[in-house]
Design a protein that fits this description.
seven-stranded antiparallel β-sheet; binds manganese (II) ion; mainly beta; Jelly Rolls
Length: about 290
């Protein structure tokens, strides 16, 4: 077994996104457009909104990749051009394959908008290979209680598995290509070594406290990029929580602009045309009180 090393640590920058909500974003960052197959890592908040302040992302399209929403605190309401509508609360995951294209909205719940409250979560964009960019849109909504969890024998390392497998537990979400997407809580003294296939690129984003990733201390708001190997060592120091991400690079050209991620500029132009001419649909809303 060969342990992966940390090759780079990226500190997230603050960014305003959507209608103006605050995100902590380690990717993309200056001089780094993506880490194949990951296109974007946004940590939303944590932020406490006053009444009337919570904002989201009104109707917008996506094509060519997948968005993964993982809510930690607060709640989001989403609806889309395919008639899909739902609510994500703490611990819930939505794995959305935009594929050929959808138009959706992602908004704080009416209660959050009216009364204010705390919001914390993630949205991560996973690229699709050329052969799947125009695949049929697909949703996998999994409530917190449906996500497999596991822990080390000493209980010091605990994991919620959104994609991939760890400590003998396996994800319920299906991915088009092999992906690891796991929420690890590492208490002081935790020490776990995980096999992750050599073909995958591995990233670890610490979002609470601190942790040691491949013998390097990583603080909240930092993304560790790992090098080659077939296992990753995670250790608890003062206690912390991290997202462990892995994916097989597609090794294809990436042409991205805003909500579209294709392989060529021509495909990007086509995406804009298709959106503007209504080919990605629109959200049909019946009259509602709020
Ligand atoms: Mn979106």
């Amino acid at each position: 077994m060969s342990l992966r090393d940390v090759t780079r640590i990226i500190t997230a920058h603050r960014q305003l996104e959507g209608g103006g909500f605050v995100v902590r974003r380690p990717l993309p960052t200056a001089g780094l457009d993506h880490l194949d197959p990951f296109l974007l890592i946004d940590e939303l908040g944590p932020v406490t909104y006053a009444p009337g302040q919570a904002i989201g992302a009104p109707d917008h399209p996506h094509r060519g990749f997948e968005t993964v929403s993982y809510i930690l605190e607060g709640a989001v309401e989403h609806e889309d051009s395919a008639g899909h509508r739902g609510r994500l609360g703490p611990g819930d995951v939505q794995w959305m394959t935009a594929g050929a294209g959808i138009v959706h909205s992602e908004m704080p719940t009416a209660e959050l908008r009216e009364r204010g409250g705390r919001v914390h979560g993630f949205q991560i964009w996973v690229n699709l290979p050329a052969r799947l960019k125009l695949t049929r849109p697909r949703y996998q909504d999994v409530p917190a209680a449906g996500l497999p969890t596991a822990a080390t024998d000493d209980g010091l390392a605990r994991v919620t598995i959104i994609a991939g497998e760890a400590l003998g537990a396996r994800a319920v979400i299906e991915t088009h290509t092999p992906i690891v997407f796991q929420d690890w809580t590492l208490a002081s003294g935790a020490d776990v070594t995980l096999p992750i296939d050599r073909a995958q690129r591995v990233l670890a984003y610490v979002f609470e406290g601190a942790a040691r990733v491949a013998t390097r201390d990583v603080a909240a708001g930092q993304l560790a990029v790992l090098g080659d190997g077939d296992a990753v060592r995670l250790e608890g120091t003062t206690g912390g929580r991290l997202l462990l991400l892995g994916g097989v690079p597609h090794g294809e050209p990436v042409a991205r602009y805003g909500p579209f991620v294709m392989n060529t500029e021509q495909e990007l132009m086509q995406a804009f045309r298709d959106y503007q001419t209504g080919r990605m649909g629109e959200i049909t809303r019946t009259a509602r009180l709020s």
